[in-house]
Amino acid sequence: MGRFPKGVVRIGAAVGLAGAIALGVALPAEAAAASNAYGVKAELLAGAVRVAPTPLSTYPNGSDLHTVTVDLGALGKVQVLNASTTGDNTAGTSTAKASVAKVRLLLTPLVNPANSGVKPAAAAQVRDQAAAIKADAITATCQANGGSVQGDANLVNVALGNTVLDAHPGPNSEVGIPGVLSVKLNEQIRHDGVLDVNAVHIRLLSGVGGDLILGHAECGPNAPEEGSPIVTPGFLGGLGVLVLAGVGGFFIRRRRTAAV
After folding, report:
1. Taking all residues of the chain, what is their mean pLDDT, rounded to a whole number?
2. Selection from 15, 18, 59 nearest residue 36 by Cα
3. CA distance 202 to 182
4. pLDDT tens per residue across span 71-85
5. CA distance 121 to 125
6. What's the pLDDT tens digit per position in 222-234?
7. pLDDT beyond 60 at 14
8. Which one-letter DSSP state was computed for residue 185?
9. Is the pLDDT of residue 131 over 90?
10. What pLDDT score was predicted for residue 8?
11. HEC assignment per residue over 26-94
């Protein structure tokens, strides 16, 4: 097989480089949008009660999911759980929303001295002040627009024991029994451009511990990322001109050389 003349090789290399440069210019930046949401998550009684995030919606993909009932063993049940996520990579936006309704949960099983490791005096405090949590609706939301991320929580007729909780708690509000039981409302955690919102986050602070989240929404980071190459008609036309000019120049040079 014959070899290409050096001039053709050089022209081809130059055309390839020019095309790569032009193609690089045609690489737009996109924003990678992300979010997730779930109604409930639990790790209680030394693992005796364990519930993975349910229902779990995530973006990319995005979905609107529903679960009728989740059983939390001795604590009771939560019902009518919803989770939804949306996003737009081009606009750099994402949203997340999670809600739980008909919450009727006993908290006394968490501090039963027989299996919790909680001292009797502390258990008595929980029975007197926070025996149960009840709610008609608990909702967490999150919205991200580029680098701006914000979230909120909404509580409808939520009561801890005999105490009715604020319907619109400020970020990271906290009630409960110090050193024994923490109940955070509208918990907001920011990290690396991400915002986590937990509408209600219950933690057992003594004994074997425990963790229960009702209503979780997370969004971000919506950071720019390199998009896919876009080959436009104008790019193809320009590349064609480069090829014709390069090859034409080669043959002109050959004729001049031959004439000499």
Report:
1. 82
2. 59
3. 6
4. 999 999 999 999 999
5. 7
6. 865 555 444 445 5
7. no
8. E
9. yes
10. 46
11. CCCEEEECCEEEEEEEEEEHHHCEEEEEECCEEECCCEEEEEEEEECHHHEEEEEEEEEEEEECCCCEE
Number of H helices, E strands in the chain: 4, 16
Domains of the chain, residue spans: 30-225, 231-260
Q: pLDDT value at position 86?
A: 97
- Cα 99 from Cα 96, distance rounded (Å): 10
Please compute Rg for the chain using Cα positions: 30
User: Residue 164 has which token pair?
Assistant: 């009715």
What are φ and ψ of residue 89, in 5° steps? -65, -40
pTM here is 0.76
Torsion angle in degrees (nearest 10) through CA of 39, 45, 46, 50? -30
Tokens of 236: 């193809």
- Residue 208's identity, in one-letter code, is V
From CA 57, how far away is CA 188, in angstroms rounded?
19
Residue pair 216/198 in contact by the 8 Å Cβ criterion: yes
> Distance between terminal CA atoms of the chain?
29
Dihedral of CA 14/15/17/22: which sign?
positive
